[in-house]
Amino acid sequence: MDLIKIMNDVRDGTIAPEEAAIMIRKEPFEDLGYAKVDHHRVLRQGVAEIIYGEGKTCEQILGIIEALRKDTACILITRLDREHALRIMDELQDAEYHETAGVCIVGHPPAPSGNGYIAVVSGGTSDARVAEEAALSAEALGNRVERVYDAGVAGLHRLLANLDTIMGAEVVIAVAGMEGALASVIGGLVAVPVIAVPTSVGYGASFEGLSALLTMLNSCANGISVVNIDNGFGAGYIAGMINHAGEPR
Amino acid sequence: MDLIKIMNDVRDGTIAPEEAAIMIRKEPFEDLGYAKVDHHRVLRQGVAEIIYGEGKTCEQILGIIEALRKDTACILITRLDREHALRIMDELQDAEYHETAGVCIVGHPPAPSGNGYIAVVSGGTSDARVAEEAALSAEALGNRVERVYDAGVAGLHRLLANLDTIMGAEVVIAVAGMEGALASVIGGLVAVPVIAVPTSVGYGASFEGLSALLTMLNSCANGISVVNIDNGFGAGYIAGMINHAGEPR
Amino acid sequence: MDLIKIMNDVRDGTIAPEEAAIMIRKEPFEDLGYAKVDHHRVLRQGVAEIIYGEGKTCEQILGIIEALRKDTACILITRLDREHALRIMDELQDAEYHETAGVCIVGHPPAPSGNGYIAVVSGGTSDARVAEEAALSAEALGNRVERVYDAGVAGLHRLLANLDTIMGAEVVIAVAGMEGALASVIGGLVAVPVIAVPTSVGYGASFEGLSALLTMLNSCANGISVVNIDNGFGAGYIAGMINHAGEPR
Amino acid sequence: MDLIKIMNDVRDGTIAPEEAAIMIRKEPFEDLGYAKVDHHRVLRQGVAEIIYGEGKTCEQILGIIEALRKDTACILITRLDREHALRIMDELQDAEYHETAGVCIVGHPPAPSGNGYIAVVSGGTSDARVAEEAALSAEALGNRVERVYDAGVAGLHRLLANLDTIMGAEVVIAVAGMEGALASVIGGLVAVPVIAVPTSVGYGASFEGLSALLTMLNSCANGISVVNIDNGFGAGYIAGMINHAGEPR
Amino acid sequence: MDLIKIMNDVRDGTIAPEEAAIMIRKEPFEDLGYAKVDHHRVLRQGVAEIIYGEGKTCEQILGIIEALRKDTACILITRLDREHALRIMDELQDAEYHETAGVCIVGHPPAPSGNGYIAVVSGGTSDARVAEEAALSAEALGNRVERVYDAGVAGLHRLLANLDTIMGAEVVIAVAGMEGALASVIGGLVAVPVIAVPTSVGYGASFEGLSALLTMLNSCANGISVVNIDNGFGAGYIAGMINHAGEPR
Amino acid sequence: MDLIKIMNDVRDGTIAPEEAAIMIRKEPFEDLGYAKVDHHRVLRQGVAEIIYGEGKTCEQILGIIEALRKDTACILITRLDREHALRIMDELQDAEYHETAGVCIVGHPPAPSGNGYIAVVSGGTSDARVAEEAALSAEALGNRVERVYDAGVAGLHRLLANLDTIMGAEVVIAVAGMEGALASVIGGLVAVPVIAVPTSVGYGASFEGLSALLTMLNSCANGISVVNIDNGFGAGYIAGMINHAGEPR
Amino acid sequence: MDLIKIMNDVRDGTIAPEEAAIMIRKEPFEDLGYAKVDHHRVLRQGVAEIIYGEGKTCEQILGIIEALRKDTACILITRLDREHALRIMDELQDAEYHETAGVCIVGHPPAPSGNGYIAVVSGGTSDARVAEEAALSAEALGNRVERVYDAGVAGLHRLLANLDTIMGAEVVIAVAGMEGALASVIGGLVAVPVIAVPTSVGYGASFEGLSALLTMLNSCANGISVVNIDNGFGAGYIAGMINHAGEPR
Amino acid sequence: MDLIKIMNDVRDGTIAPEEAAIMIRKEPFEDLGYAKVDHHRVLRQGVAEIIYGEGKTCEQILGIIEALRKDTACILITRLDREHALRIMDELQDAEYHETAGVCIVGHPPAPSGNGYIAVVSGGTSDARVAEEAALSAEALGNRVERVYDAGVAGLHRLLANLDTIMGAEVVIAVAGMEGALASVIGGLVAVPVIAVPTSVGYGASFEGLSALLTMLNSCANGISVVNIDNGFGAGYIAGMINHAGEPR
C-alpha cells in the first residue's frame, strides 16, 4: 500500500478523505462465510493461497478454488483424502490427485525456475507421504525437485550412494521419523540450507514425532532449521523461497 | 574427493594402491588431543570452524584458533563469558569481544556480500543476547544486518513502525521468548524466509523456552522454520546461507 | 443463609432447636439419582445450571431440564451432538440447536444487558466451534456479542480491518489454536480484559492445544487470562460476568 | 489515531502528504537504547508502563523511570531484589519498597476507585510473595484491596471464616501453589470473576507450579480464568480492569 | 512356609532331602496356559485373585474362575464390558453384573466386617464408574460402604451437607477428575486416611487424569495417599485393608 | 461442633442468638501475622500441627512452637537445616535434631501405641533422608517403627533376608528412588497396606523422582498407595493413622 | 568392502578406474519402487532383512520377500495382522503365522546355535504379544529360547520358582509393562546381560509404556540395557547377537 | 546356594535343622551402618561392588573399600570429584584418579581378556567425561578398549575415517548428547551389539539428555540398546559382559 500516493491523491482531490481512510483500512479479502479468501496474498507473498483440506467439505473447497482462480493459475490442496479428491476431480477438469501425498493440484504448475533444484531426501518407506507433500508443493511453486527416498541413516551406504544428487542441490529437505538422524548426517555433508521435517512415523518412545523433532532441533550440524511434525508443505514452501532467493521481488 | 582422478593415478602408478586406500579413508583433520580441527571444513562448507566456547578452557580455545588460522581470516567464538574473553584478547590483538552477545570475533569479518540484507527482529529487551549472537554471526559470515529490537507483538505499533526495514530484507531472523508470537506476525507480513529463534527468556509456564518453541513450530504463517532454543548462531548461519543463495559454489 | 434470623426464631420458639440444626445443614438441592440439581444456584450465582451434555443420555438431560425449569427461563446445553439435539427438540418446543457450536438453548435468552458488548475473535476457520460456543453462551447469559472470525495473526491485515469492533468492546474473547498468538496481539491493542481460549485445533507439535495454551499463558501483553483448552462456554461465562461488573448483586 | 482527521488536514493543506504518511507510521515511543519507552501507552491502555525489574540494571531502571515520569504519577517495579531497591530509593525520594512482594512503587498511587474492592486470597504462608505482588499492583492501579492470606483448602474452616470478605468482592484473586484447589473452592462460592494465580511453591510432583496450573485450568467451577505461574502482577492488573469495568473510557 | 518344620521332617526322615528342596522351590500356582492361577494367594494376602477383565476372552475368564473357585467364595471381575458380562452370566448362575462400574461379582460377598465403614465420595456425575468400582470392590472384600456422589468442590455446600457421613468413616475414598481438589478438601476435614483416586474424566488440559493426579499428590492436607488414574479397585482394596487393620492375621 | 447443643443453649437463654452465630463462624485459630496456628486441629485430627521448616525463619518457627505448646506435648519440624536447628536447640532445651532426616523434635514423643509396628524399608543409601523423615514422624506420632534400609530390589536377597520384619508389620512404608521397584516387590509379599514414597534420588532419566513416582503408581501389586516425591512425613503420618485404625476416636 | 583389493585390481588393470569408482559408490540394493531391498545386508550384518509389516500392503510384502529370497533361507515379518497373514500364507507354502506375536516366518529357521540359550521372561498375561515377538525373532535368527511368562514381581514367588531357567541363560530378555520392575529384579539375580523391553500395556499413569521405560532406564541393577517400547524384535535381535558373541565373523 | 547339599547335611546330622533354616535366610552381607557390603556379589555376578561416589563422604568410601578388599583385587569408584579423590589417594597407595572421567581405580585392573575388544565412540568434545567413564569401567573389568572420540555425525568423514576400528570390535559403546544420531549411524554399519549412552550435554531443547535418549530408543538400526543418560559405567559393564559372552561361568 503506497501511503504517499494515497496522500497525494487526497491533496489533489482525486480521493475524498473518508475514502482514503476506508482504503487504508479496507478489507483486502472476499468473504465466503466459511473462509476469508485473500486476493492480495498472491501479490504480497508471491504464491497462491494454499488450501489446507483437512476438515473442509467439498463445497467449501470448491468455493475457495473458484474465488482464488481469479488471481492464480495453480492451486494446491493438501491433506485431502481420496474420497474428497474424486469429487473435486469430477467438478474440475484440470485437477490432479497424488494419492501418496494426499495432495491435489488444480491448474498448471509453473515451469521450474530458481537458482537450481531442491533435493527431497526421506528416511524410510513410511515417510513417503510427507516427503511427497513437500516435493509436490515445491514443484507447484515453480521448482525442480530431485527425490532420494528410503535412504535412512541405518543403511548409511544408501545415502552415500546418492551423495552427488544431495550435494548438488540449492537446498535439501530432510524428511524422517523415528530417530530423525537423517537431517544431522545431511547437514554435515552439504553446504546449503537443510529444512528438516520430523514425521509422526514410529511407535513407542517416538511419541508421534516428538523424538524426531527434538533430534532435529538439537543437531550439531550447521545450516539446519526445522518445521512442524509432518509439515511437508511448509518445508516445500520454504525450500522454494530459498531456491528463488536473490530474485527481484 | 575426486575418486576417478585417484583411480587414474593408481593405474598410472603415480599413487600406490595402499596409498590410495589411505587417501580415501584419511582423516582430513588435525588432532589437538582435546578436539579435532577440520581444515577441510572451510572449503567444504564455505565458512570457518565456529568455536562453541562454553565448557572449553582458554588454552583449548587458543589452541583451536591457532590451528584454524591457517585456513581462515575470521573466527567466531560463541557463548564466551567476559573472563575468558579478556584473557583471549590479551593474547590476540585482533580479537574483539561483544559482551551482550557473549561473542568474540578474531580477525576481520569479510566485507558484506550476498543478495541483500538480513533483518534481525527481537521481541523484548531480554532477548538481546540471542539476537546479537545471531546478528554478529551473520556479519562475521559476510552479510549486512539490520537490527529491529524490542519490537514484540504486545506493542504491535512498534513492529509496524519498522515495517519497511523488515519487508525489505532477503531473510528475517525473529528472536522471541515468552509466547514467541513474533515469528507468526512477521511470517504473515513478509514474502521471504523467516528463521525463528525461541529464547529461554520468561518464567513460569514458559518452561525455559518450550512455550516459544512450540508456538513457532505451530505457526499458521508460511515460510517459517525454527532452530533450537537460544541458538542465535544457528539462525545467523542459515540466514547467511540464504542471503548468499544462488551464488556459484 | 441468615444465621442470626434463625437464631432469633429459635429463641422465640418459632423453630425448634433440632429443626434449626437441620436447616443449617439441609441439602439445598434436588436429587434425581443421576445428578443433584441445585435450585439455589440460580440465586447464588446469578445464572441457571448449565448442562454439560457430553456423556449424558437424552433422558438424563430432559430430567435435568425439567427440574431446572422451575427456577430459570433459559437453559444452555453444551457439547451436544446432532442426534441428541434432534431428540431433545422433539420433546421441547422451545429448544433450538446451533450445530456449529454443538450448543442447544432451551427457552428464551434474556434481552442483552450489561455495560457494553463482548467481542469474540477467532483465528482460523477450524476454531469456529469453540468461538460459537463462547458467543452463544454469552448471549444466553444476557450479553450483546460481536463476532470477528477467521482473523488470525498470520494475516494481520484481516485483524486490523476489524480494529474498531475489537477496540470498542467491554471485554474480548480470543479463540485460537495452533500457535495461539492472537491473544497477545489483541492484548497489545485493547485496554479491556481479554479472555484467551486455546483450542485443540492443529497437528504435530500443537499437542492438542498445549502449544496454544502455553503461548497464551506466557503472553507479554497485559490483561490476558486463560481458560481450559476448548472451553468456549467458560470464556463466555466469565466475559458475561465482566460485562455486567459494577451492577448491584 | 484519527485517520479521517489526518485526511482532512491533508486536504486542507494543514499537513503535507509526506508528513501524514510519516504520522501514520511514526514511532510513538522514545528510544533509550536498552528499551523503547512507550509514551502513548498510558493513554492507550489507561495505566503507566510497568517495569519488570528482573535482569535490568539500576541505571536502566532509573532511566526508564525518568522517561515515564512525564506521563504518569505512579510507576510500579516488579521482581526487584532488595539490593536494587535500596539503590533506587537512594536516588528517588518517593520510591517505597515492599520486600515480601519484591515490588517498588515510585510516586503516589491513585486514590481507590472502581465498582467495589478486590479480594486477594492465598493458600499458604509461602504464597505470600505472589499474593502481595497482586495486591500491591491492584492498589497502585487505583483499587481497594482486601487480603485473606493463609487460608488454604486443607484447613477449610479458615477459608469459611472469611466468607463475608470474599463474597463481598467485585473480583477475587486466588493465589495457591501445591494442589491449587483454592480457586475451585472459591469459584464454587462466589458469583464474580475469579483470577487464579498458580505459584511455583511446592516440591516433588508440584513441578514448579505445573500441578497448580493444571488444577486451576481444569476447575469445574464457573468464572475462573488463569494467569501464568507466579504472575501476581498480571492478576492484579486484570482484576483492576474488572473492578473498573463499565466506566467510560 | 515353615522352614524349620520342613527341616525337622528332613531330619526325621519324613521327607527326603530332594523332596524338601522341591517343596521350597515348588510353584504354588496352577498353570492354565494363558495365566498362572495362584492358589496360595488367598491365604497369603487374605482375598481372592481379582480378575482384571480387559483384554481377556470369555473362555479365559471362565477358566480362571473355575480354577479359583476351589479357594474362594467370591470372585471380582473388573473392567468387564456388557457383552462379556452377559455371556458369563449365562454360564454362571451366581454371577451379577454392575454395569455402571463395569464390575461382575461371582458368588456371595462376605458379610460386612471391619472396624467401621468406608465412605466413597465422588466429585461429578462422570466419575461414577470409578467410584462404583471402588465401592463394589470394597463390599466384595467384606466392608460396609457409604456412598456420597456428585459432591465436587465447585458446589461446596453439597459436600458439607454430607459431612456426618464422611466424618464418621474409618477411611474415605475420594474419587475426582478434572481438578481433583476433592481429596484436599476432605483431607482437611477428616482425621482418617483418605485414598485419592484421580479419574481420566475431563478434557483439554486435564490430560486424561494427569491434572487430577498431580493435584492429589501435591495436597497440603495430611493423610492422603494416591492410586493410579481410574484405579477404583485398588482404592477399594486398600480401604478394605485399613478398615480391617488391627485384626489378627 | 455440636450444633444441637448450641441450639438448646440458645433456646434456654444460656447463649444469645448473636453469640451463637459468632460461635458457629468464629475463627478457631490464633493469628501470628506470618501464620495462622490452629488450636482446634489437635483435637480435630488427633495430632499437633506439624511445622514445615523450609522457607521459615527461626523466629517464625519459634513463634509457632510457642503458640502450639498450649495444646500439644510434641512438635515435629521437618525440612530443617543444621544451622536453623542449632539456633532452635539453643532456645529450647527439649528440642532434638536428627541430621540425616533434617527433622527436629520438640518435647517428648508419646509412648508407642497402635495395633502393631510400622516397617520402613528403603532402597539405597541415598534414600536415607526420606526414610528417616518417615520413621521419625511415625515415632513422634506414637508408633513403634522397625527400619530395614539399603534393601533395594537390585540385591533381592538383602530384602528377602528381612522378610520376617517386613511381613510382621501392620503397615509398610517403601522408600525408593531410581526405578522405584521396591514398592511392587513388597506389595507382592505382604498382606497389609504399603505406603510408597518415591524419592528424587537418581540422575538422568529419573527426572528428579518422576520415574519412581510413575513406577509406584503403576504397580501391579495390590495394596499400594503413593505420596508425593520425597514426602517422608506424609507417609509416616498415614502409616500412623493406619496403625491406630480401629481405635475409638 | 576391501579397498586395497580394488586398488590392486585397478593397478593390475583387472578393473578400469571408472569401474572402481562406480564399485565404491555403487548402490548395493535393488529398487522395488516402494522399498530398497538390500542384498548386501545379509552379509554385512549376518541376518536377513526383517520386514516391518505395519503399513505395508500384501503386494509390497510379497514383493520384498521375493527379492530377499535370493539371499536368505528365512524371512521374518513382524507386526502383521491376521488378515494380511492369511493372504500371504495363501501365496507362500512355507509361511507360518504366529498370531499371539503378530509374526510370520517364511522359510526354515536355522538350527539353534550360539553359546547357550536365551531366556524370555514376561511380567503379565498382556505382555505376551511382545514377549512372543522377541522369542520368535530370536529363534528365527538361530537361537534356543526358554520362555518364562506371567512371572511379574507382584507375585515374586512365581519368578523365584523359575530361577534355574533364568540363571542358566546366556542373556535374558525381560518384558514388562505397568511398573516395569521385572528387569531390575532379574538384573539383581543374574550375571549375564539383560535386555529390557517396556510394553505399552497398562492404563492411567502408565502413559502407554513411558512408566515402564523410565523404570528400566533407572534400574539400580547392573547389566541392563533397554530397547524401545514394545520392540520385541529388537530385543530378540540383540539377544541373538550376544548369544553368538565370540564367534568368528 | 546348593539347597540339596544343605538338605543332605541336615539328614546326615551335619547341620541342625534350625541352623539350616538360618543358612537359607542368612544375610550374605556385612553391615557398615551406612551401607551393606555384599561379599557374595563378586561370586554371584563376577565383578566387585562398584562404588557410586556421589553423595558419599570420604570416610564412607574408605570404609566400603576396606570391606570389599577381602574379595576383590580391583575396585572402581565413579562420580568422584577431585577433592574426594585426592584424600582417597592420600590414604590408599594403589588408588589412581582419572579426572576427565571422575573415576578412581583402586588396585590393579585385571589383564584384558574376552573375545575381542570394545570400541568406545563419542560424538563431541563435551561427551568425553561419559565416554571415559565407560572406557575405564570396561578396562577395570578386564577388557581391551579402543577409543574413537570427537567423531559425531555432523562431520561424518571423521567417523568413516575410523571405520576399521569400529567394525572390528566385539561390541561398540556409542556416547552422544545433543541429537544422539551417532548410535544409529554406527548401528547401520556394524554387525555387533551397540550400547548407546545418551549424555546430558547440550542446551535448549536437548532437555538435559532427553532428546538424545529418545533418538537412541527410536533408532531404525538393529542391534542397539540404551542405558540411562550419562550412565557411562553401566555401558562399560554391559559391554564387558558381552565381550566375555560364551565363557564358562
Question: How many distinct beta strands of chain A?
Answer: 11
Can you write the helix and strand succession of chain A as a string? HHEEHEHEHEEEHEHHEHEHEH
What is the assembly state of the chains in this entry? homooctamer
Q: Please work out how many helical segments of chain A DSSP would assign.
A: 11
Largest interface: G-H, 35 and 35 residues
Specify the CATH architecture of the largest domain in chain A. 3-Layer(aba) Sandwich
The dominant shape of chain A is globular
The number of domains of chain A is 2
Helix content of chain A: 25-40%
| N- and C-termini, Cα separation of chain A | 15 Å
- What's the arrangement of strands in the largest beta sheet of chain A? 8-7-9-10-11
Q: What fold name stands as the CATH topology of the largest domain in chain A? A: Rossmann fold
| Poorly predicted spans of chain A | 25-31, 39-46
Helix/sheet category of chain A: alpha/beta
Overall pLDDT level of chain A: 82
Largest sheet of chain A: 5 strands, parallel
Top CATH class of the largest domain in chain A: Alpha Beta
Gyration radius of chain A, rounded: 21 Å
